[in-house]
Amino acid sequence: MYGASEHTRKLMERFRHLQFAAVVSDVSDSGVAAGGADPAGASGDSATSAADSRYEASVANDRCGDSVRLLVWLDATGERILQLRHHSVGCSICRVSADFLCEAAVGMRLDDLRDLADRVREWQGDADSTAAVPLPQLELFQELRGTRSRARCLLLAWEAAERLCGEVAG
Fold first, then answer.
1. Is 136 exposed, middle or buried (0-12, 13-18, 19+ CB in 10 A)?
2. What pTM, to 2 d.p., does this model score?
3. 90 and 58 in contact (C-beta within 8 Å)?
4. CA torsion angle 67 144 164 40 (round to 10)
5. 117 Cβ partners below 8 Å, 6+ apart?
């Protein structure tokens, strides 16, 4: 890591357990519904099951090969997130951002998740903005704000969240 910035060293130290993993699957265990189905058994693209209110959406970055697949379980009203899991393949920024998303989303309404995804996109895209960090965890990515080279890495999970909200809305 010669020549790495202090920020990069801090990021890699915090997530050193992810540093060499090619795939991080179901990283976020927070908010697991009692008796809920195991998301590892999900199959198909954008599959929907009315029996367990499970939906999924996937997004991939064609330039680098990173991909994020989100699986969500909703409450009986179909509006509140009981559990959100991800299966991510890619760089640490992509995987950690997906993990932050899954931690934050449990208990949210889908409309709130869509709003949060919009705020993350706005926050990341404008380095000069004085807007507050949408999630405290995203402060780690402060140096990436306004950059083009790693913006998609940070935003890939949030794009999948927007797609997921669209899938549920029908």
1. exposed
2. 0.70
3. no
4. 40
5. 158, 159, 161, 162, 165
For the stretch 20-44, pLDDT in tens is 333 333 333 333 333 334 443 333 3
Question: Does residue 94 lie within any of the structural domains?
Answer: yes
CB 29 within 8 Å of CB 141 = no
Is residue 52 a part of any domain in this protein?
yes
* Token couple for 117: 């995804």
Tell me which residues of the chain have a pLDDT lower than 50: 1-4, 17-51
Question: Where do the DSSP E strands lie in the chain?
Answer: 23-25, 48-49, 54-60, 67-74, 81-89
Burial category of 101 from C-beta neighbours within 10 Å (exposed 0-12, middle 13-18, buried 19 and up): buried
Domain range holding 20?
6-30+46-169
Structural domain count, the chain: 1
Residue 60 belongs to some domain of the structure: yes
